[in-house]
Amino acid sequence: MMGPEVNAYLIVAAFLFATGAAGVLLRRSPLVVLLSLEIMLNGANLALIAFSRRFGELDGQVFALAVMAVAASEVVVGLGLIVAIARRRLDLDVDKLSTLRG
Amino acid sequence: MTTAAWICLLSPLAAALVITLAGTRISRRMAGRLATLSTFVSFGAAVWAFVLMLGRAGDDRREVSTAWTWLTAGELRFDLSILVDPLSVFMMLVISGVGSLIVGYSIGYMDGDDEERRYFAYMALFVFSMLLLVQSANFLLLLAGWGLVGLASYLLIGFNQQRPSAVAAAKKAFIMNAIGDATIALALFLLIWEVGSLSLDFTSGGEGVPLDGTVATLVALGLLGGAVAKSAQIPLHTWLPDAMEGPTPVSALIHAATMVTAGVYMLVRLSPVFEAAPEVQDLAAGLGALTLVVAGLIALVQTDIKRVIAYSTMSQIGYMFLGAGLAAYGNAMFHLMTHAFFKALLFLGAGIVIHALAGEQDMRRMGGLRARLPRTYLAMLVGGLALAGMPPLSGFFSKDSILASALAAGTYGQVLFAAGLLGVFLTGLYTFRMLFIVFGGKASTHVQEHLHVPRRSEPALWMALTVGSLAVLSVIGGWLQIAGVWHPLSDFLHTAAEPKVEPSVTQDWVTAAISVSLGLAGIALAWWFYGARRTKVPEATAIRRALEHKLYFDEAYDALFYRPAAAVAREFGRWIERPLIGGSVSAAAAGARGLGGRVRLAQTGLLRNYALALAGGLAVLTVVFLSLSS
Amino acid sequence: MTDWLTTVLICLPIAGALVVWLLPLSRLAAGGLALLVALTEVGLWINAVRVFSFSSGELQLEQQVTWLADLGISYHVGLFGFSLWLVGLTVVVMAATIAYAVWAGRERARAYHGLMLFLTGAIVAVFAAQDLILFYASFEAMLIPLYVLVGVWGGAGRLGATVKFVVYTMAGSLLMLAAVIVLGLSQGTFDLVDSGTSGSVWIFLGFAVAFAVKAPLFPFHGWLPDAYREAPAEVSAILSGVVSKAAVYGFLRIAIEKFPGPADDLQPVLLALAATGLVYGSLLAFRAPDLRGVIAYSSLAQMGLITLGLFAFNGAGWNGAILQSVTHGLVSAILFLLAGGIERRASTGHLNLLGGMARGRPALATLLIATGIIALAVPGSATFAGEFLILAGVFDAGWAWAVVGVAAIVLAAMYMLRLISAVLHERVGSAVSDRALDLRPAELGILVPLVACLLALSAWPAAITDRSFAGSAGSAEGWTGYAPLAENVTPPGDQP
């Protein structure tokens, strides 16, 4: 089955990963950081599947499914944390949340 | 013979142990009697050994007896052995004989002192140590005896523990003697590695010593250092005048008759070593001559009666060094013996004077004692005449024999002869200065108030008898050897130490004539200034001050050695020790704390910092893997 | 039976320690039991001397039980002639110090005496261990009770002293651990008897530094003054008299024997450090303002002297070092116990405040003077014999070392006589009152036997030197039966 070269997929995946990384490093709202983290994970998933398709092995796709499961659990935990922080009426600002305890 | 020698050696040690362990269970006077008895037993044993030795032929008079092996190290063995030969028997007789007289005198002198037992234990220990020194058959035991007499001297000088001056004098004596011990030790180390043994075997059989050249000179120098320290010759002499802080019998026994003569004994006993290093032997003679003159000069300005006699001792030992250094061994030992008699006599007589004046030692407070202490005056007069070398007393024969040997010993000897003659003049002068000041003239006010002539009692009897015996010995002791006529002493000592210089009869007579006249001149001058005329002594302030300060030796040593050592110690304490103790551990703690503090700064708590770190680390790893795989 | 003797010597005090810690004994019972165990140790040691064959140079009273066969680690204990004398020193000094502690009365007696007994077992194990791991373990085990003893029962500045002590010794021990592991793995076995020699300078240094801290050698002695001043008197006696000798043993058994090449190369360095410590310690002892300071710095000087003898690499030096180790151990113990007694009577150790104590206290005066003059090595004493041998030995390595050594003898006379006079002579010090009594019978009962041992050794030092390293004139190994060391040796009388 021919389609675009694997390179095209990798470029898109890299773009997604970089966008996500930039979001993690540059945005202050934890919600946005979580979102960016999801984008990074999706970029990684894309790369995995593209390679799986390229080499004809199924390992990449299986691993991508596992990554999705992990991403889902992590989102649950993260959103739970954010809701808990919001309930205590703290600023949703990553720079201000630096005590890392309590 | 050796059994007698062992008894002689161990008897005083036994007394010392018994007195120490018995403590207050025996009376004070009993301690004194015990000590005296032990020294008399010692003397008896020495006489017995002597008699046995006379019964043997000349070559057969040497025996060694070993108790057990003292120290080993691989192939080195040092035994506890004693050597019995003419020289050691001679010394045993002098030490135990004069020693027993002085210890007996002490019963009278120390009567009433609280610490008598301690005194007699120390005296017995001293006699034992001195006997060990002269009986030892190897260098190591000799050094052991050497050190032990120094110890006994420290204990006895510092006997009056409350007096700071006595304690300081005791420490000074010990430390100067320790310097001598150190130089002897160095000489012994050299001997061990060159020769392989420390036994005194070479002194018999005349085979000589397997040493020569630089090694022999170094060994002899080390030994000479010890001899100079022990015998208080220049330059290690400053301890002797201070040692007069001890009780008078101590001064008599240790600092006149025996311990200070140990250096002379060493020069004679180890003569083969010194003969292998002739420069050192000449040095010994030279130091003797120098001390002889300098000590005589210093004695002229002393005001303490004991210090006059102390400097006189230093001077007379200079004569002995002169004799031994010029290889006139028999004559040197002869003078050692007669000097023991008359110097002990002078000290003990001075002790009676001091006792009678309730402890006063300053001659300027004395005077006119001739009428009040006539027998003491007579005894001290005998001693003084003997010291000045007047015939027919003992000093005349012994001192002149040394001077004659100097005359016969080549140009160097003749130079020293001149020094010796100057010494004779000075001896007459200072001795009779002392006698005229103390005994002549009118009684001073101090004497009139404080004089207390002792009543007849056991203590006084001891003092009188012992002084009397010494006076008799001072008179007849010299008749043992009359130059050119009969010399049993030299013959006796010949096998142990063969003299290398024999004066001719003319030289003997010439010396005798000159020295007697010089001695008389000195006495006359003393009479002129201090006798009946009491003419004013010429001022010469600079010289007088220099002499009163003992030529500034003490000050020089203080500046050269003591102060720098104390300063170095202080600086070590400040610059090395304090930082080392406190600094290092605190530095380590501070370092750890600083490092921790700096590392802690990375824990910001900011999520983005951690994310950045993750990203950065990932980037670095990627690069590394890529470069490694390519 | 005799093979078990070494193990019993190690384990009996440890068992005693456990009993004392676990059973609810009264103070007197705990102390009495500890003393009983200590005296039994002495008896066992005397028995060991009886069955020991001093003419063969081999390891005796040996016992070996394999533990980890593939690494070569085993429980291997045994004694040479010289280690037997060091064990003897240990048991005698420990018995004396335990007796002193019983007499002086220590708080929490059960803990205290348990620790003392444990310490005894550990120290004996150090001298008897023939396996590197066992040696290291005993070396560390020796330190734990000491930390506690100083830190809990010490004087006012005990915490700082303990911290310094801990830091210094830990640093050294960690280096030694690294060295032990590397040596054991490279040799294939950790057994000291089976393993051969190594030429690695770094491993040698690892051991040497640890022993230099323990001895202590200049400049690793920063822990010494405070530890000796703050510890209870009898613990200082142990530290200075016995624990320092573990370093001597370590140097001889491990550092010099297993590393002949590096030891030879570094001989000048170690001699220089030892000589520096000797002079430095003597000078500081001369200026120290308190009793314990003088004894502590004199201990530093003496350990420098002993190390000088060890690195002379000839029979005279080694025999001298062992003899001096034993005599210094005894002297130091007596001096610290006397210092403890004086401090109890005057409530201070400062020499300015003492003085005139000889008046009315003849027993104290006699013992202090007797020990002091033996300490300064008066000729004729056992310490003189040791010093003479050491300096004679080191003279062969270079005459300058011997000159420094004899200069230190004069310095020793100066500081010891200063100590004696400052305590006993001259005016009565302000801290000394008439109520301060002479030595009590209990104190005499502890000190007099120690002094008697010293006097006996002074009369017959060959008892130790003739029986430390077997093999004498006729033996093929040359100077010592301690064969690995024989190649480094030139007998006297032959100069190349």
Structural overview:
The complex is a heterotrimer of chains A (102), B (630) and C (496). By secondary structure, chain A is mainly alpha-helical. Chain A has helices at 6-26, 30-55, 59-87. Chain A is elongated, with a radius of gyration of 17 Å. Chain A has a single domain, classed as Helix Hairpins (Orthogonal Bundle). Chain A is built from three helices and no strands. The termini of chain A are far apart. Chain B is built from 25 helices and two strands. Chain B is 73% helix and 3% strand. Chain B is mainly alpha-helical. The mean pLDDT of chain B is 86. Chain C is mainly α and 496 residues long. In chain C, strand 1 and strand 2 form a beta hairpin. In chain C, helix 12 packs across helix 15 and helix 13 packs antiparallel against helix 17 (441-459). Classes of the chains: A mainly alpha (102), B mainly alpha (630), C mainly alpha (496). At the B-C interface, strand 1, helix 5, helix 6 and helix 24 of B face helix 6, helix 11, helix 13, helix 14 and helix 15 of C.
